[in-house]
Amino acid sequence: MSKDGLGGFEQLVLLALLRLGEPAHTAPLVIEIEERSGRPVSAAKVYIALRRLEQRGLVISCKREPEPGEGGRGRRSFKATARAVALLRRNRRTLERFWEGLKPLEDEAR
After folding, report:
1. Which terminus of the chain has fewer Cβ atoms in its 10 Å neighbourhood, N or C?
2. Which residues, listed in sequence order, are joined to residue 77 by a DSSP beta bridge?
3. What is residue 78's predicted lDDT score, i.e. its pLDDT?
4. Total-model pTM
């Protein structure tokens, strides 16, 4: 995968992040991906993808400490960067160009 490329799962994570609004936590992202993809997804896999995306500058995160009385550990929330949105748009245009003219598949895709 090139530095500017996105894997399929990374795209799902970014799209789920954008759908949920920002900032978003890992657990709601897992639910969103599972519901939309129809397949089970582990929280660890989502978190690893988020950290990888963050290292590449496509996601930023912040950690909120628990409020008094909440207990537990703080929650990390994630937000897609403008660069991630631009990359998703470019990937979408590329995929649409590949779908154009594939008559045997066009009916199934809708």
Report:
1. C
2. 62
3. 95
4. 0.82
